[in-house]
Specification:
This protein has about 150 residues and is of the alpha/beta class. The protein contains five helices and five strands, in the order E-H-E-H-H-E-H-E-H-E. Helix 1 crosses helix 3.
Protein backbone atom coordinates (compact mmCIF):
# COMPACT_ATOMS: atom_id res chain seq x y z
CA UNK A 1 0.00 0.00 0.00
CA UNK A 2 1.37 3.38 -1.00
CA UNK A 3 1.80 6.09 1.60
CA UNK A 4 -0.16 9.25 0.82
CA UNK A 5 1.92 12.15 -0.43
CA UNK A 6 2.84 14.56 2.35
CA UNK A 7 3.66 18.09 1.26
CA UNK A 8 4.84 20.80 3.64
CA UNK A 9 6.71 23.07 1.21
CA UNK A 10 6.03 23.70 -2.47
CA UNK A 11 8.93 25.33 -4.32
CA UNK A 12 8.14 27.46 -7.35
CA UNK A 13 10.99 29.09 -9.27
CA UNK A 14 10.04 32.38 -10.91
CA UNK A 15 11.68 34.81 -13.31
CA UNK A 16 9.19 37.65 -13.60
CA UNK A 17 7.49 36.20 -16.68
CA UNK A 18 3.76 35.60 -17.19
CA UNK A 19 4.53 31.87 -17.23
CA UNK A 20 6.03 32.08 -13.76
CA UNK A 21 2.93 33.90 -12.47
CA UNK A 22 0.87 30.96 -13.72
CA UNK A 23 3.26 28.54 -11.99
CA UNK A 24 2.77 30.46 -8.72
CA UNK A 25 -0.99 29.98 -9.08
CA UNK A 26 -0.51 26.23 -9.47
CA UNK A 27 1.94 26.11 -6.55
CA UNK A 28 -0.50 27.99 -4.33
CA UNK A 29 -3.33 25.63 -5.32
CA UNK A 30 -1.18 22.57 -4.52
CA UNK A 31 -0.11 24.12 -1.20
CA UNK A 32 -3.73 24.86 -0.35
CA UNK A 33 -4.73 21.23 -0.98
CA UNK A 34 -1.96 19.88 1.26
CA UNK A 35 -1.97 22.56 3.95
CA UNK A 36 1.56 23.46 2.86
CA UNK A 37 3.46 26.69 2.32
CA UNK A 38 4.97 28.07 -0.89
CA UNK A 39 8.59 29.08 -1.35
CA UNK A 40 9.13 31.28 -4.41
CA UNK A 41 12.69 31.39 -5.78
CA UNK A 42 13.47 34.27 -8.13
CA UNK A 43 16.15 33.01 -10.54
CA UNK A 44 18.25 35.77 -12.08
CA UNK A 45 19.21 35.29 -15.73
CA UNK A 46 22.66 35.22 -17.31
CA UNK A 47 22.53 38.74 -18.75
CA UNK A 48 21.57 40.24 -15.39
CA UNK A 49 24.15 38.21 -13.47
CA UNK A 50 26.92 39.20 -15.89
CA UNK A 51 25.83 42.83 -15.56
CA UNK A 52 25.92 42.68 -11.78
CA UNK A 53 29.27 40.87 -11.66
CA UNK A 54 30.72 43.28 -14.25
CA UNK A 55 29.45 46.37 -12.44
CA UNK A 56 27.17 47.48 -15.30
CA UNK A 57 23.96 46.64 -13.41
CA UNK A 58 23.18 47.83 -9.89
CA UNK A 59 22.32 44.82 -7.74
CA UNK A 60 20.05 46.96 -5.53
CA UNK A 61 17.97 47.92 -8.59
CA UNK A 62 17.64 44.26 -9.56
CA UNK A 63 16.63 43.31 -6.01
CA UNK A 64 14.02 46.09 -6.03
CA UNK A 65 12.59 44.69 -9.28
CA UNK A 66 12.51 41.14 -7.93
CA UNK A 67 10.84 42.35 -4.74
CA UNK A 68 8.13 44.04 -6.80
CA UNK A 69 7.44 40.72 -8.53
CA UNK A 70 7.46 38.91 -5.20
CA UNK A 71 4.66 41.23 -4.07
CA UNK A 72 2.59 39.64 -6.86
CA UNK A 73 3.58 36.20 -5.54
CA UNK A 74 2.52 37.17 -2.02
CA UNK A 75 -0.82 38.48 -3.28
CA UNK A 76 -1.52 35.23 -5.14
CA UNK A 77 -0.57 33.11 -2.13
CA UNK A 78 -2.84 35.22 0.05
CA UNK A 79 -5.75 34.55 -2.32
CA UNK A 80 -5.25 30.83 -1.65
CA UNK A 81 -4.70 31.34 2.08
CA UNK A 82 -1.18 29.88 2.06
CA UNK A 83 1.99 31.19 3.65
CA UNK A 84 4.83 32.18 1.33
CA UNK A 85 8.56 32.69 1.73
CA UNK A 86 10.90 34.02 -0.93
CA UNK A 87 14.54 34.03 -1.99
CA UNK A 88 16.71 35.00 -4.96
CA UNK A 89 19.45 33.05 -6.72
CA UNK A 90 21.88 33.64 -9.55
CA UNK A 91 20.92 31.27 -12.34
CA UNK A 92 24.40 31.58 -13.80
CA UNK A 93 27.92 32.29 -12.64
CA UNK A 94 30.95 33.60 -14.46
CA UNK A 95 33.17 31.70 -12.02
CA UNK A 96 31.33 28.39 -11.45
CA UNK A 97 30.63 26.25 -14.52
CA UNK A 98 28.15 24.11 -12.62
CA UNK A 99 25.93 27.08 -11.70
CA UNK A 100 22.88 27.20 -13.95
CA UNK A 101 19.13 27.72 -13.45
CA UNK A 102 18.41 24.01 -12.94
CA UNK A 103 21.08 23.58 -10.30
CA UNK A 104 19.93 26.78 -8.55
CA UNK A 105 16.39 25.37 -8.36
CA UNK A 106 17.48 21.96 -7.05
CA UNK A 107 19.94 23.48 -4.55
CA UNK A 108 17.15 25.68 -3.19
CA UNK A 109 14.75 22.71 -3.08
CA UNK A 110 17.24 20.99 -0.81
CA UNK A 111 17.87 24.13 1.27
CA UNK A 112 14.16 24.75 1.97
CA UNK A 113 13.34 21.03 2.26
CA UNK A 114 10.77 21.25 -0.55
CA UNK A 115 8.43 18.28 -0.96
CA UNK A 116 6.96 19.33 -4.31
CA UNK A 117 8.10 21.56 -7.19
CA UNK A 118 6.08 23.53 -9.72
CA UNK A 119 8.08 24.84 -12.69
CA UNK A 120 7.08 26.75 -15.81
CA UNK A 121 7.83 24.84 -18.99
CA UNK A 122 6.15 26.85 -21.74
CA UNK A 123 8.56 28.35 -24.27
CA UNK A 124 9.40 31.83 -23.11
CA UNK A 125 9.81 34.92 -25.25
CA UNK A 126 13.52 35.26 -24.53
CA UNK A 127 13.20 38.59 -22.78
CA UNK A 128 15.97 39.30 -20.25
CA UNK A 129 15.20 37.61 -16.96
CA UNK A 130 13.12 34.80 -18.44
CA UNK A 131 15.41 31.90 -17.65
CA UNK A 132 13.25 29.08 -16.37
CA UNK A 133 12.74 27.22 -19.63
CA UNK A 134 16.45 26.40 -19.36
CA UNK A 135 15.86 24.91 -15.92
CA UNK A 136 12.69 22.91 -16.58
CA UNK A 137 14.20 19.92 -18.37
CA UNK A 138 17.07 19.65 -15.88
CA UNK A 139 14.69 19.81 -12.91
CA UNK A 140 12.38 17.21 -14.47
CA UNK A 141 15.35 14.87 -14.99
CA UNK A 142 17.09 15.27 -11.64
CA UNK A 143 14.60 16.34 -8.97
CA UNK A 144 13.97 13.79 -6.23
CA UNK A 145 10.64 15.48 -5.40
CA UNK A 146 7.44 15.26 -7.46
CA UNK A 147 7.47 17.98 -10.14
CA UNK A 148 4.51 19.63 -11.81
CA UNK A 149 5.55 21.24 -15.09
CA UNK A 150 3.11 23.91 -16.25
Amino acid sequence: MTEPLEVDTVLVPVDGSDESVEAVEYAAAVAEQYGAEVHALYVLGEEIVRGIEGGAVDEDDVLADTETFMDTVRDLAEEYGVAVSTSNAYGFSTTRKTQHPGSAVLDTAEDVDADFLVIPREPLSGEPGEVLEKAAEYVLLYASQPVLSV
